[in-house]
Amino acid sequence: MPESETDGQWQEIIRFYAQGSDLLLNCLAAASLSYRRATVCVPFPKCFQLSNNSRDYSALQQCLDTLPSLHELSTASKENLNLTCQHRALLEWTLASHPRRKASAFQPISLLTFLHEVPCARLTGSHASNPSLLPEAVFKLALNAQPNVADTNSALNGGFEGNDAAQQRTVTAFHGTSFECLHSILRSGLVPASNTKLERNGKTFGEGIYLTTELPVAYSFCSGAERWKGSTLAPEGTRLRCVLVCGVKENAQIDKTELVSNKNGDPPPEHYLVIDRPDLIKIQYILVYVDHCGNNSSRNLAAAAPVAGQDSQNTGAVSLSSMAGVVVFIAIVLWLIMPGSSSSRNFMY
Length: 349
Description:
- This protein is α+β, with helices and mostly antiparallel strands.
- Helix content is 37%, strand content 14%.
- The protein has helices spanning 3-6, 10-16, 18-33, 37-40, 57-66, 70-75, 78-81, 85-96, 111-117, 165-168, 182-188, 215-219, 298-308, 312-337, 342-348, and strands spanning 106-109, 137-141, 170-177, 209-212, 225-226, 239-249, 272-275, 281-291.
- It is globular.
């Protein structure tokens, strides 16, 4: 492949949109390593497509493994990077080739900004007792900022265009998914997986896309994948998870109950939404979680205490109190089962 076709603006994109570039490379790496890669690694980089239309996954994985770190890619000169034509083609394809998947479309925002824009996320309060619900990174999808998006009715845009305020009302909902699926989701949007190879969790409440208004419920459905080795988004040896924050369109002419599909007789729980029309859903944010050794990062643990209004002394008091309770319980059990105790005879009979 000629260098002019592959050595485009990828380095400038990485410099200006480092975290968005990092996210896209992690998504592709996770999809290529998945045992379901035939369905989740879609679209597939054309530079690794063989003449018989089969996919060269080994070459793709080797190319990803031999890419310099994101820091090197953004700081070193192209002459010093020693990139092959395949490296450059992969970077161009991943970061700039698709109008709905450019790195510039994924803007990192702070957790405080996210909570201000999506107050129903409720990461404070009772949820703060579970520090794993505090994401390591938050990305906002800035799809409307891309003037070259031709397909305005795509599933990713969710058909939310228009000036009628009544058509813009949405319900915020969360969708937990495997990180390996994020590569295809960010291109094609959420699509119903019922009765397809992508179905993972059944269809208890009917066919459609399952969402929930409760973040902990969505988090319970997201599974992790290994980070790309050159990533700066997460430390080495960690795994990435994600939860999608979506707007579900609530048309003024459609009652909200019509958004819930129930084909098995029993209505879904109140906090579930089963949507059979992808055009009613727009992905707005991506919450990225990092599985550190011991499941939770020290940053999340530290962040959880002040949010919950707890200090280190309170936390220590709770721990001592719990230990004292365990000791008392064991003492009572031993006393009850002592051979000479009348209480033990009464307890047994």
